[in-house]
Every structure is written in structure tokens, then in C-alpha cells.
Amino acid sequence: xxxxxxxxxxRAPLAFVKGEGSWLLAEDGRRYLDLGSGIAVNVLGHAHxxxxxxxxxxxxxLWHVSNVYTVPEQERLAGLxxxxxxxxxxxxxxxGTETAELAIKMARKFHYENGQPERVEIIAFEGAFHGRSxxxxxxxxxxxxxxxxxPLMPGFKHLKWGDHDAIRSAITEKTCAVIIxxxxxxxxxxxxxxxxxxxxxxxxxxxxxxxxFDEVQxxxxxxxxxxxxxxxxxxxxxxxxxxxxxxxxxxxAVLATENAAxxxxxxxxxxxxxxxxxxxxxGAKVVELVSDPAFLAEVTRKGALLRQGLESLVARHPTVxxxxxxxxxxxxxxxxxxxxxxxxxxxxxxxxVIAAADNVVxxxxxxxxxxxxxxxxxxxxxxxxxALAA
Length: 390
Fold this sequence. Notes:
Strand content: 15-25%
CATH topology of the largest domain: Aspartate Aminotransferase, domain 2
Order of helices and strands: EEEHHHEHEHHEHEEEHEEEHHEEHEEEH
CATH superfamily of the largest domain: Type I PLP-dependent aspartate aminotransferase-like (Major domain)
Structural class: alpha/beta
Number of helices: 12
Number of strands: 17
């Protein structure tokens, strides 16, 4: 008999009733150290006082109107984002999946408006994850994502991750855009080297192709810069942002240059809830806090501290872990057992990590995780590895 909640997740037998900082309290009273942050969402941890205050104050004033009207909170957040990034304009959504849909539409509309309607093909990469809508799964292309869902949205080419020669040969007169995650999250914390992002930017400029960065998981301070592509010193034409931007409140955004967005005129796209006053008020507070250079410097320091501890963990447990990968506080442990076994062992040790592809478990803690909690995390991971090795 099917349960009331559609069974599309293999849910863990854990239910949490309260969170504070990097800790979650389960129904049975047990505390867990959260190194998943709701899959890179709770960038300031659970129940951050500034976010609670902002949400509460906004909830007492105005929850929702409509994008038929000017939304002051939306205008403010858009200004913060354009001031801090390459972008000239922003469209707000409720999720990362919705950002993928708009990014696809925007890129294709750009070429249509430029008199090249044949340029509709988008190049994407093996191991990518761009969301769960029909357009987003077509962009990812993996069998796990698309099997059984019938005819897919056409117009995507899927290349092997890291094959530079294939990218150049794949771009034709029909190519519209290249979409890529600077760091693959679901794909196993696979980092695109800076020189590869630079080469990709140059190739897109050379061929008149738009470059779309999916920073839904790797953005919002996770690598020690506000957005991961900043390390490479390049900028996209369009960027997808979600997860961390709301600090736990459902919020996403598509950022774009004026040139890339010029085809998106009145009536070409919309959203009922996207950019509502609640989400944008919280998002503005998140951006204010996370974009502070001192905060980002701390992310870099904490990431180095955690990574150093993880390297030691790998050395002590060679039958469980192979290596550490990632940047900042977006780290992965390459495992020898199945990632699901490592996650389960973590439950036993009171620590939460997240499985990914390529036999990796992800560590995506709150960006403000205290040093003491990093030390505790390493202790609990050590306990989990010891249990697995036994």
C-alpha cells in the first residue's frame, strides 16, 4: 500500500524536531552533528538568530503579493546580487530546478532574438545535476534521471566530464550554450580546474556561445568566494543560484548580463511565488552576511582546517577512505565501501553526511561551523570509520 507521502526517497529512519547551529535534535532526543546542511542549504546553520528575526519581522508585515506589482524586498536583493557579481539583472525563483528552466529558455531566446533561431543545442556534461524537471533531467541526461519519463526535451549534447577536445568539436552552428557546474555536487565533488573554466570562457567567446554556470550547490560562499567561478577569474553569461541563498527558505535566482537577458521581455517568463517578500527578505540578510570578506576568509580557514583533519582520517583508515577532494567547505571523501554504508555508519556515530556519485560522501557543513564542531566532526567520522573497518 502506498504511503501518504509519495515514496520517491529512500528515507533514513531519522526525524528531527529542532536544530541549532550545526546540530539537529531527533525525536528520540539524540543529537546529530549536521555536515549536510540540508544539502548545502543551511549556510548559516539551523535557526540562525539574524535569519529568524528577519523572517519573523517580514512575516508580520507582508507574506505575498504578486509579481504583478513592484516588490521592494525583491528589488533590494537584486541590487545586492548585481553589486556583488558580474550580473546586470536577476530573476527570482523558488528552487534550483526552476533556475535551470529559465537558464535554458534565456539562452535559446538570446539566439532567436539575434536572428539565429537554429542555435538551440546546449552542451552539458556527464555526472551533472541541474534539477528534476523535464528540462533539467534532459540537461543531465543520465539513465538514472531520465529512464521511464518518455520523450525528453531535445537539444542537448552530453560530453564526458573533463574532455576538452570533445567540447571544441561539439560546438557547431546549432550550439546555443554550454552549461556546467564549476564543482559537481551530486556528481561526486568533482572540481573543474581554473584553467579549464578559463579555456571554456575563451571558447564560448570565440564561437558566440553563451556560458551558463550552475552554482546552485557550489555558490553562496561555499568555496570561500561568494561564487566558485570567482577563483578562476572568469564570469558566465548566465548563472543559476539557489540552495544557500535562502539559508533554508526556498529561494533561487537566475543572474545574467544585460546582453544575455535581452530577449526576456514582459510576458516571456513568470512565477507566482518566486521573489516573494518572505524569501527575498531572508535572502538579502543571507547575502549581506555571507558576502562579507571577513566571513569568506573564515570559510577558507575552516575549510583548510577540516580538510587537514580529513587527510589524517584517510591516512588512519585506508580500508575505508581513499582521498579528499573539493574546495572550501564543499568537500568529499572518496570511499572504498559504498557511500550508503559510510552514511549509515555516520548515523551510528551521530554525524550526518551525504552520499554522492563516484563513491563519494559529501561534507557540506554550515559555513559558520565553529572550530570545536569541526573537531567533534572529525572525532565522530573517525568512530564511524572504525566501526566500518571492524
